[in-house]
Design goal:
It contains ten helices and 14 strands. It has helices at about 45-50, 75-80, 95-105, 110-120, 135-150, 165-180, 195-200, 220-225, 270-280, 295-305; strands at about 5-15, 20-30, 35, 60-65, 65-70, 80-85, 155-160, 185-190, 205-210, 210-215, 230-235, 250, 260-265, 285-295.
Length: about 300
Amino acid sequence: MTTIISVSNLAKTYASGFQALKGVSLDIREGEILALLGPNGAGKTTLINTICGLVTPSSGTVTVAGHDHLRDYRAARELIGLVPQELSTDMFETVWATVSFSRGLHGKKANPAFIETVLRQLSLWDKKDSKIMTLSGGMKRRVLIAKALAHEPRILFLDEPTAGVDVELRRGMWQVVRQMRDNGVTVILTTHYIEEAEEMADRIGVITNGEIIVVEEKAELMRKLGKKQLMLRLGAALAAIPDALGTYKLELDADGRALTYSYDTRADRTGITTLLNAVRDAGLQVTDIETRQSSLEDIFVDLVRQSQ
C-alpha cells in the first residue's frame, strides 16, 4: 500500500519541560484504518495535533502525501480532516450552516449536493435545519465528523470519536467509519475502547510515554503476541498448587477450584499433554476443560506494562 503520511523522529517538549513525544516514527498507509491505543497522557492527542499542524514539533518531520506539514502547510492541511475530542462548535447554528461553513473555510466552492451526501451518510439529513444545541451528544459528534469531511479530505483523524456515546450509537459510528474507508478515506483514530480498535482497525499502533512501541496488522499482532489459556476445573478445591505442578506456571483461582495454564500457540510444543498427565499423576480430578484466546485488551495491557 502507498504511504500517505510519514512521521520521522518526531519529538515535542513543552515549555514546562514535559516531553510528550520522543522520536516517534510512523508510516500511515493510504486507505487503511489505523487505531492508536495508549493510556491517558501517552501522547496520542499530541501526535495527532502535530501531524495536523496544530502543534509545532520540537524536532522531526511530517509529510502528508509528499507535502511537508510545516513548509507546505496549506497543501498538507487541505488533505486532512480532524474530529477533536471536545464538542466544540457553534451551538446556535444549524447543522447545514455549520457544515457548509467548514467547507468554505478551506476555500472550497459551495456544493450543496456534496453536503447533502455527507449528512445522509451520517444520518443527519433529517436534522439539517436543527440547531446544534438541540442535538444529542451522539448527534453532535456526528456533526463534528460532517464538518471534518466537508472539504473532501483524503485523511480523517478521529480523536476519541465515541467518547460519551452509548453502545448503540457507537456501533453506528463504527459503520460510518468503515464506509469512509470504503470510499477511499484514510482513517486514524485514537480510542480508549479496546473493542473499538479490535472491531474496526486494519492496523494497531500502541503508544506509551511518548513512544510508539508497536505498529502491526491487527491479525498479525494477535498471532504474534496473543496467547491461549487452558482452564482446568477441579472436582475439589485446592489450598495451593501442588509442588509437582510447580514447573508449569499455573494460576489458581480465588476459590481454589480452577487452574489456568497459558501457552504460546506458535510454539512447537504447547505442553498441554504433559501437563494433563502431571495433573492426573498429582491425583487431581478434572471435571471440565475450557480454552480462551487472549484479547487485544490483554495484549495492550501486557505491552504497556512491559514498557513501564
